[in-house]
Amino acid sequence: PRIYSSSYAAAIGSSFPPLFSNNFTRPEVSRRHSTSSDTEDTEDEEDVRRAKDAHPSTRNTNRFKKKKRTVFTSAQLQELESKFSDQKYLTKHDRCTLAKSLGLTEKHIKTWYQNRSD
């Protein structure tokens, strides 16, 4: 079927073929898993399932384990607070030295300073 009738096309002087037609045939899609015909998913259900598989919130989260929150000891917090009151910004050398003295990583020190500055 054409989008417009042939009389309309003749009236506007168009000799172009219609832009859209219903002659498109869908290629066969191979299924990943063979299923019995009585439990076979419809194409719409399969498309929804594929979309869910691709959506980030439904991916397997075992691969993306969230790191546990670091719990600072009272001695570490006291030293961090003392250092912060003296020095609002740490150089890389100071951060490395402080991390070694407290038994933490430089990233812990950097993150604590960033959160404390807020």
Task: Describe, in plain words, how this protein is organized in 3D.
The protein is an all-alpha fold. It is 47% helix and 0% strand. The protein contains five helices and no strands. It has helices spanning 6-12, 43-54, 74-86, 92-102, 106-117. Helix 4 (92-102) packs across helix 5 (106-117). The two termini are 65 Å apart. The mean pLDDT is 74.
* Unreliable spans: none
The helix/strand class is mainly alpha
Q: Roughly what fraction of the amino acids lie in strands?
A: under 5%
* Rg for CA atoms: 32 Å
Task: Report on the biggest sheet.
Answer: none
Provide the helix percentage: 40-55%
- Put simply, the count of helices is 5
Instruction: Calculate the terminal CA-CA distance, rounded to whole Å.
Output: 65 Å
How many individual β-strands?
0
Write down the overall mean pLDDT.
74
User: Per the principal axes of the C-alpha atoms, what is the gross shape?
Assistant: elongated
Give helix and strand order, one letter per element, not per position.
Answer: HHHHH
Keywords:
single chain; 118 residues; 5 helices
In short:
By secondary structure, the protein is an all-alpha fold. 47% of the residues lie in helices and 0% in strands.
